[in-house]
Design the sequence.
C-alpha cells in the first residue's frame, strides 16, 4: 500500500539543540498509528515540522506520492492533514455549527449572509457520521471538554481530512469520553481515515492502535505492529533500558495525623467532606472528572472560598483564606492545569522554579543570585528536567518537562503537606516512575500527601488509602489492601461502597 | 545557555538603535541640536515624562494601566503649592505633596484589587475625579505667590548640582533604583510573574493584591515628584497641568519594547522611549515645524517603532 504520509531523515534543531535527528515516519491510509517517546523526544516537533509550523532543516516529506514543503498548517489541511492540538481551538460563545464551519460558512452568493439552515444540517450530518448526538445550535462553551473535542473532529472531517493527528487527546477526558473517542476513532478508521495518535498511556495505545513508532532523544528507534509487540518492548525502545516495576515499592512508617478536614462544604459544589492524612501517608483521591475533586483541593489550599467546615493541621485548627496562607502552613499544591495555573510560561525554567520560595532566597528583598542558581541547578538535576539552559522560557519545554518544573517549584519550598492534582498528566513512563519515586521519597521524609488522579492504576499503585468522590460527596474511603479498579469505579459512579 | 541570553539582548537593542538614528538625522538637520545647552534643556524636559513612565512601566508589566497620572500630578502639585503659598515650610509641603500622590496611587490600587474594577476603568474614573478635585481646590486658577520662598523647592526644578540640572539627577537616581528593583529584588521578579500569569502567581503564594497596590502607589508617588519639578520650574501650579501626560508615558513604555499585555519588558527601554519622545519634540521645535505637524509626526514615529518591533517577533 502506498503510504499517505512518508517522512524521511527529518532534521530539526533549535539553536544548538538537535531535536530531530534523521527521523523516518510513515502513515498508511486507514491505520491508527501511535507516536511514542519520552517527554522531549520530539513528537510534537515532528508533527509541527510536518504541518509547516516549524521549517525543517533537512529531510523529505512525501504526501500522496507528492513532495511537499508546507509553510503553514492551512496548506497541510488542503492535503487532508489536520492536527487536533491538546489545547482545543473552540470559540465558546459560538454554536457547535458555527465552530465547525468557522471561516468556511456556506453563504448566499457573495453577500456574506450565512445560510444557517444549510450549515446546521451539514453540521448535524458530520456529527452523525461520528455517531455523536449533538445539537448544532448549542453553544460550544456549554459543552464538556470531550464534546468540544468532537466539534474539532467534526470540523476536521468536514474538510475531507484523510489524516487526523491527535496530540495527547485524552489528557483532559473522562473515562466515558475516552470510550466515546475510541469508538469515533474506530468509525473514522473504517471510513479509511488515518489517525496519528500521540499519548503516554500504554493501555490506550494497545487498545486502539495498529502500529507504534518510537522516538528517543530525537532519533527514530523503530516501528512495530501492536500485534507483534508488548508493553515491555515498547518501554524498552522508549527509554533504552529496562525500567522494572512501574510503581516502586516503599517502606514507610506512617506517623501522626498531619491534615484533617471536617465537614468542608461549598454549596452546590461539594458537601460535608471529611478526611485526614498522616505524615508519610499517601491518600489517593479517585472520582470522575467533574466530581468536585479539584474544587475540594483548591478550597483546602485557599484558592477558592468555601461555606463551612474546618481544617486542622497537626491537630490545631487553621484559617486558610489564600494560597499564601496555605504556603505559610507548609501546604503545597500541584495543580492539574499547568499552563493556566502552574507556570508563568514566558518566564524561564529558573524563574519558575524559585517563584514560591523567592523570599527565602533573598536578603532584604535582594535576590541572592548564586544561592538561587544553586537551588535551580539542583532541582533541574534532581528531577532530570530536560532543558538546554535554565534560562530557557518554560513554554519551549515539552509537556512532560513542564510538569517536572511545576513539581520542582513546590519541592523547593520543602512542604509538609503536598496536594497533587493529576501529577503525571502528559508525563512519559520513565518520568512517571521518577515522579513516583519522588512522591515516595517525600512520604518517607514524613510529608503527608493527597494525590488526586484519574488514572486508576496510579491510584492503586501509589496510595495507602483511597478516598472516592462522587458528585461532591465522599462516597467511600477504602484501605488499599487487595483493592481493585472495579470497586473504585463502582463507588465513583455512585454505587454502594 | 549564553546563546539564548545574547540573542535576547540583540533584540532588545532595537529602541536604542532607533534613538541613535533619530539623533543622527537631527544633528545633520540642525546645528543647534548637538549643543550642550540644548541637551541639558532637552533632558530636563524629558525628566518629567520619564519619571511618570518609570512608574507606568511597573504598572504595565503587571498587566495594568494607569490613566490618572496627569491628574495625580496636577492635584499633588496644587496641594504643595497651596501649602507654600500659605507660608508652610517647603520641606513639609514637598513631603505632603509626595504623600498625596502616593495616597492617590493607593486608591487606584484599592479600586483595582479590592474593588475588582478593571485598571482602565478605575484609573479613567480617578483621572476625571482627581482633575475635578484640582479645579475645586484651585478654583480653576493657577496657584502662585510662593516665588523664591523656599530654596529646596526652587532647587527641584531649577537648581544645578555640579553643573547638572537637578531634574536630570532626580531622573537618573530614580532610574537606577528602579532598575535594580526590577532586576535584583523579589519585588521586581514578582512584578513580572504577576503580569505573566496572575493566577499561577497567586497559587504560588505571591501577595498579588499587595504588589499591585505597591505598583500603583509607586506610580502615584512618581507622578507627584514629576509634578513638583514642573511646578518649581514654572513657579506656579496650573490646574490643567499634566493633561494628556498619561499618553506620553504610555508611549514611552511601549516605544521601549514593553508589552501592553504584561509580563514582558524592561525599564531601560522606557528610558530610551522617553528620550525618543523628548528628542523628537526638541528636534521638531528646532526645525520650526508647526505644532500641528509635530503631532502627526510623533504619532507616525510611534506607529513605525511598534510595527518594527512586531516584525522582529514574527
Ligand atoms: N520553540 C522551541 N525552542 C527551543 N526548544 C524547543 C522548542 N520547541 C521544542 N523544543 C525542544 O525540543 C525538544 C522536543 O520537544 P517536543 O515538544 O517535540 O517533545 P515531545 O516529544 O512532544 O514531548 P512531550 O511528551 O513532553 O509532549 C524538547 O527538548 C524541547 O525543549
Ligand atoms: Mg508533546
Sequence:
Amino acid at each position: 500500500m502506498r503510504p499517505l504520509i512518508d517522512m524521511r531523515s527529518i532534521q530539526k534543531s533549535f539553536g544548538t539543540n538537535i531535536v530531530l535527528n534523521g527521523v523516518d515516519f510513515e502513515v498508511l491510509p486507514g491505520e491508527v498509528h501511535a507516536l511514542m517517546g519520552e517527554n522531549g523526544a520530539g513528537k510534537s516537533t515532528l508533527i509541527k515540522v510536518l504541518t509547516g509550523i516549524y521549517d525543517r532543516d533537512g529531510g523529505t516529506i512525501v504526501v500522496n506520492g507528492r513532495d511537499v514543503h508546507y509553510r503553514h498548517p492551512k496548506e497541510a489541511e488542503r492535503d487532508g492533514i489536520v492536527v487536533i492540538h491538546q489545547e482545543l481551538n473552540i470559540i465558546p460563545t459560538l454554536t457547535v455549527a458555527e465552530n465547525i464551519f468557522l471561516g468556511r460558512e456556506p453563504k448566499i452568493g457573495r453577500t456574506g449572509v450565512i445560510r444557517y439552515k444549510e450549515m446546521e444540517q451539514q453540521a448535524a450530518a458530520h456529527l452523525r457520521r461520528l455517531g455523536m448526538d449533538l445539537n448544532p445550535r448549542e453553544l460550544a462553551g456549554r459543552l464538556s471538554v470531550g464534546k468540544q473535542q468532537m466539534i474539532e473532529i467534526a470540523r476536521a472531517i468536514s474538510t475531507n481530512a484523510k489524516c487526523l493527528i491527535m496530540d495527547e487527546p485524552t489528557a483532559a477526558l473522562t473515562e466515558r469520553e475516552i470510550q466515546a473517542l475510541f469508538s469515533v476513532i474506530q468509525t473514522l478508521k473504517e471510513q479509511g481515515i488515518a489517525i496519528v495518535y500521540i499519548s503516554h498511556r500504554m493501555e490506550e495505545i494497545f487498545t486502539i492502535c495498529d502500529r507504534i513508532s518510537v522516538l528517543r532523544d530525537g532519533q527514530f528507534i523503530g516501528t512495530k505492529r501492536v500485534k507483534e509487540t508488548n508493553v515491555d518492548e515498547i518501554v524498552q525502545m522508549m527509554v533504552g533500558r529496562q525500567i522494572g516495576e512501574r510503581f516502586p515499592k516503599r517502606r514507610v512508617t506512617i506517623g501522626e495525623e498531619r491534615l484533617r478536614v471536617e465537614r468542608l462544604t461549598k454549596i452546590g459544589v461539594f458537601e460535608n467532606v471529611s478526611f485526614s492524612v498522616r505524615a508519610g501517608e499517601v491518600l489517593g483521591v479517585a472520582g470522575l472528572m467533574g466530581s468536585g475533586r479539584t474544587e475540594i483541593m483548591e478550597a483546602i489550599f485557599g484558592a477558592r472560598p468555601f461555606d463551612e467546615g474546618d481544617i486542622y493541621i497537626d491537630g490545631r485548627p487553621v484559617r486558610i483564606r489564600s494560597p499564601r496562607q496555605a504556603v505559610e502552613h507548609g501546604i503545597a499544591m500541584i495543580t492539574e492545569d499547568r499552563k493556566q495555573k502552574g507556570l508563568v510560561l514566558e518566564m524561564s525554567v529558573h524563574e519558575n522554579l524559585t517563584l514560591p520560595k523567592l523570599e527565602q532566597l533573598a536578603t532584604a528583598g535582594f535576590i541572592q543570585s548564586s544561592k538561587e542558581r544553586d537551588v535551580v541547578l539542583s532541582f533541574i538535576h534532581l528531577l532530570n528536567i530536560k532543558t538546554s539552559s535554565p534560562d530557557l522560557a518554560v513554554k519551549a519545554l515539552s509537556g512532560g518537562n513542564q510538569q517536572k518544573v511545576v513539581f520542582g517549584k513546590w519541592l523547593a519550598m520543602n512542604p509538609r503537606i503536598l496536594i497533587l492534582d493529576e501529577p503525571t498528566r502528559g508525563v512519559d513512563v520513565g518520568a512517571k516512575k521518577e515522579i513516583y519515586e519522588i512522591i515516595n521519597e517525600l512520604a518517607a521524609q514524613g510529608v503527608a500527601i493527597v494525590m488526586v488522579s484519574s488514572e486508576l492504576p496510579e491510584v492503586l499503585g501509589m496510595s495507602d488509602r483511597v478516598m472516592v468522590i462522587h458528585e461532591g460527596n465522599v462516597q467511600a474511603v477504602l484501605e488499599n489492601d487487595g483493592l481493585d479498579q472495579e470497586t473504585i469505579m463502582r463507588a465513583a459512579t455512585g454505587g454502594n461502597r | 545557555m549564553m546563546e539564548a541570553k545574547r540573542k535576547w539582548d540583540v533584540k532588545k537593542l532595537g529602541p536604542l538603535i532607533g534613538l541613535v538614528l533619530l539623533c543622527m538625522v537631527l544633528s545633520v538637520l540642525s546645528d543647534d541640536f548637538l549643543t550642550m545647552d540644548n541637551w541639558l534643556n532637552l533632558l530636563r524636559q524629558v525628566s518629567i515624562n520619564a519619571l511618570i513612565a518609570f512608574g507606568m512601566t511597573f504598572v504595565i508589566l503587571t498587566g495594568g494601566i494607569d490613566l490618572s497620572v496627569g491628574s495625580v500630578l496636577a492635584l499633588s502639585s496644587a496641594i504643595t503649592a497651596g501649602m507654600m503659598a500659605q507660608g508652610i515650610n517647603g520641606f513639609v509641603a514637598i513631603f505632603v505633596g509626595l504623600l498625596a500622590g502616593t495616597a492617590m496611587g493607593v486608591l487606584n490600587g484599592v479600586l483595582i484589587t479590592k474593588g475588582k474594577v478593571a485598571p482602565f476603568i478605575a484609573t479613567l474614573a480617578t483621572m476625571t475625579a482627581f482633575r475635578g478635585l484640582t479645579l475645586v481646590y484651585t478654583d480653576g486658577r493657577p496657584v502662585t505667590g510662593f516665588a523664591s520662598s523656599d530654596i529646596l523647592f526652587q532647587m527641584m526644578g531649577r537648581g544645578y548640582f555640579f553643573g547638572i540640572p537637578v531634574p536630570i539627577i532626580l531622573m537618573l537616581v530614580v532610574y537606577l533604583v528602579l532598575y535594580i528593583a526590577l532586576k535584583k529584588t523579589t519585588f521586581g521578579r514578582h512584578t513580572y510573574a504577576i503580569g505573566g500569569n496572575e493566577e499561577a502567581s497567586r497559587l504560588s503564594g505571591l501577595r498579588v493584591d499587595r504588589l499591585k497596590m505597591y505598583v500603583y502607589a509607586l506610580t502615584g508617588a512618581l507622578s507627584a515628584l514629576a509634578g513638583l519639578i514642573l511646578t518649581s520650574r514654572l513657579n506656579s501650579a496650573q490646574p490643567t497641568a499634566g493633561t494628556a501626560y498619561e499618553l506620553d508615558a504610555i508611549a514611552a513604555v511601549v516605544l521601549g519594547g514593553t508589552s501592553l499585555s504584561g509580563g514582558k519588558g524592561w525599564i531601560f527601554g522606557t528610558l530610551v522611549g522617553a528620550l525618543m519622545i523628548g528628542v523628537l519634540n526638541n528636534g521638531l521645535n528646532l526645525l520650526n515645524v508647526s505644532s500641528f505637524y509635530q503631532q502627526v509626526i510623533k504619532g507616525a514615529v510611534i506607529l513605525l517603532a511598534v510595527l518594527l518591533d512586531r516584525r522582529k517577533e514574527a
About this structure: Chain B touches chain A at residues 1, 3-5, 184-187, 189-190, 192-193, 196-197, 199-207, 263-264 (CB under 8 Å). Confidence is low (pLDDT under 50) at residues 1-7 of chain B. The first helix of chain B runs from residue 2 to 12.
